[in-house]
Amino acid sequence: MHQTEGKPPQRVPVTPPSDTHTHGTGFPMTKLPRLADALRDVLGRTANRLARRTGFVRRQRKLTGAAFVQALVFGWLDDPEAPLSHLADTAAAVGCPVAVQSLDARFSETAAGLLRAVLERAIGVLVCGPAVTEGLLARFDGVDLIDATVIALPDIAAAQWPGVGGSAPADGRAALKVEVRLGLADGAIAASLMPGRHHDQRGPLAHVAVPPGALQVADLGYFSLERFAEIGAAGAFWLSRLRVDTVLADAGGARLDVLAAAAQADRLGGLDVRLGVRALPCRLVACRVPQAVAAERRRRLKRSAQKHGRTPSRSRLALCAWTVLVTNAPAERLSAAGARALYRARWQVELLFKLWKSRGGLCRSRSANPWRVVCEVYAKLLAGLVAHWVTAAGLWAVASRSAVKAWSVVSSHARHLAVCLGSRRRLCEALGVVVGVLRAGCRVNARAGHRCTYQQLTAPAACALT
């Protein structure tokens, strides 16, 4: 079951502490009660209801569905390598003492079904912070980054999540693809689950309407001239890298060489072009990359071509020296430097995946039990959502935030949040403490040689209009 299509996720706006202001249509609130309500509903009432629906609980038990979900989510958020004894301790902390052997026996296909159902309910909730409106982000009514990542699963899950059957771990018989849409301005995150063998463009989020005035930034996996035309017709904007096999023409319909067009666009600050046989009007923006980057791109291109028994052409190798972007945003709204800065900001959603996998242990397990491994994937995805919700609510308005430091703060408070989950008042107080710690020190270290994302998005060159 994917995220419900055609029905927009419930949005849970969260205001910051009193030293900043709310933005947009967020509701006034104190001590983060809406975030507390979302956590209590998804990991409490909803988990118990789904435990009966999925058959995880058939009669009254000491270990409830909510306690099981909370023990795994907060136990592995606290320590992604946590043994069963640590998870049992977390279950006891939330009011359901359970023996380690009993907990181990609960990892089954039914438990995986419960965790999957709770995860799918959680990804239908959008928790957002106050929007950042500095620099380039102020030019649009939202900037959404969309991307997907693949997680290898044990073969036992192949019926639910078929992979592509390749030799790489993420290409095996079973794989889960997680599609994410991240709001760069307010931190709102929407997600969907689909089989690893599915192309990115088959994901539900790839077809969600982009609001008028908003900008969608996506990689080549989402390159679709038909989709770009839909976004433009709705009064919204898109930004993407150019797929090299796309037909390129000038405003008069004459075919253009991509390398020549890139050089001209770099010299002029942008070039009006037409894409594909449907002659989709847009702007082409290009810039040369450092030699080291170009060399690494050529190495990857040659490896990929060799794997498929091909030899890359000279033009393809030459294009490795360029980053070529296309967008329907006019120059009066988005300059060439601004387009490059916003496309580089895609790193934020890739950083999210990196955090889930490295800090959250999403692709690691101590167990050889395949159903426990599947349960870990669902529980750690839930833990990643919880960590992001807290970070978005407490830190997103701070442009110089450090997602890595924020993860460390949230994970260090995971057990305390779990203990407080039973009381709305105590959970609000605990969240307030975490938010205070986040805002006190989770800043990106100043780097003279490499500007972080917020510096790039507020740089005078990127914000200047042509």
Number of strands: 11
Q: How would you sum up the major sheet?
A: 9 strands, mixed
Distance between the termini: 47 Å
Structural class comes to alpha/beta
On the 0-100 scale, what is the average pLDDT? 87
Write out the strand line-up for the largest beta sheet, numbering strands in chain order: 5-4-3-6-7-11-10-9-8
Helix content: 40-55%
Question: Strand percentage, roughly?
Answer: 5-15%
Overall spatial form = globular
Regions with little confidence, pLDDT below 50 for 5+ residues = 1-8, 14-30
Order of helices and strands: EHHHHHEEEEEHEEHEEHHEHHHHHHHH
Total count of helical runs of at least 4 residues: 17
The gyration radius over C-alpha positions equals: 23 Å
Descriptive labels:
alpha/beta; 9-stranded mixed β-sheet; two-stranded parallel ribbon; 17 helices; globular
How is this structure best described in words?
- This protein is α/β, with parallel strands linked by helices.
- Among the domains are: 10-125 and 361-441, no CATH class; 234-344, no CATH class.
- 43% of the residues lie in helices and 14% in strands.
- The chain is built from 17 helices and eleven strands.
- It has helices spanning 33-54, 65-78, 84-93, 100-105, 109-122, 225-233, 258-268, 291-307, 314-319, 336-344, 347-359, 370-395, 403-412, 414-420, 424-441, 453-458, 460-463, and strands spanning 10-13, 125-128, 143-152, 175-183, 189-195, 215-218, 237-241, 248-249, 271-275, 280-288, 322-327.
- The strands form two sheets. The protein has a nine-stranded mixed sheet with strand order 5-4-3-6-7-11-10-9-8, with helices on both faces. A two-stranded parallel ribbon has the order 1-2.
- A hairpin with a 4-residue loop joins strand 9 and strand 10 (280-288).
- The longest helix is centred in the last third of the chain and has 26 residues, at 370-395.
- The protein is globular, with a radius of gyration of 23 Å.
- The protein starts with 9 loop residues before the first strand and ends with a helix.
- The model is unreliable at 1-8 and 14-30 (pLDDT under 50).
